[in-house]
Amino acid sequence: MKAFEPEQSSISCWNEIGVKGDLSCPQLNSVIHCHNCPVYLETGRSLFNQEVTLESLEYWTGIMAETVTQVINTSIKETISLMIFRISQELLALPVSSLQEIVVPRIVHRLPNRSNQLFLGLTNIRGETLMCVSLAHLLSLNVDSDITKEVGQKMIVVGNTEFRWVFPVDEVLGVYRFGPQELKQAPVVITKATETYTQYVLDWQGQKVNFLDAELIFYTLNTRILEI
Question: Is residue 15 part of a domain?
């Protein structure tokens, strides 16, 4: 019997245009997954009719190595990148996807009859006027209300597809990856704003970090500032 010689058009189609590829296979609309496709099933059946040769062993060894690499890459993708920063004594984290820029402190221009403890005013970031807010006030943290004037502070620019916000922090500690198993459910506490906006609690270098709900923060800012 001939040694196994996989045909490129069939053996790798699911890796190229199927569920492991770019999803461009026209059959996916009807079969949903390559596992349900006749080409995939027929290729699987053909393996039982082939002679086990050195060539086939080498081929499938390569396939298995590629599969292991894909599993490792998938595990990496499942981790989440978080930026950890400090306001007062609290360590907080936001997803990197919401982070746009970290800058040195800028002058904040207060607006008559509009600026308050939450909405600090307007500031210029690379030629764009953005609203500066106090995340510390939103989270009910005990800090100096004039934080933007303190030396050594940083400003973080965050946002989504609709709005961008700037808020001052005491220290930016960096970006770190966390796996799903490291995300612990936040305690059910409704009397403290920090806990209200916390999705998960993380252990980082022996310290507790509150992983904040970015979308809830953006929604609250939109409601309390933009709709006034």
Answer: yes
Decide: pTM greater than 0.85.
no
User: CA-to-CA distance for 121 and 157, rounded, in angstroms?
Assistant: 14
Q: What is the CATH number of the domain that holds 175?
A: 2.40.50.180
Q: Residue 3: what pLDDT? A: 40
Q: What are phi and psi of 145, to 5 degrees?
A: -65, -20
* pLDDT value of position 132: 93
199 and 91 assigned to the same domain: yes
**Averaged confidence pLDDT in the chain:** 78
Domain that holds residue 69: 8-78
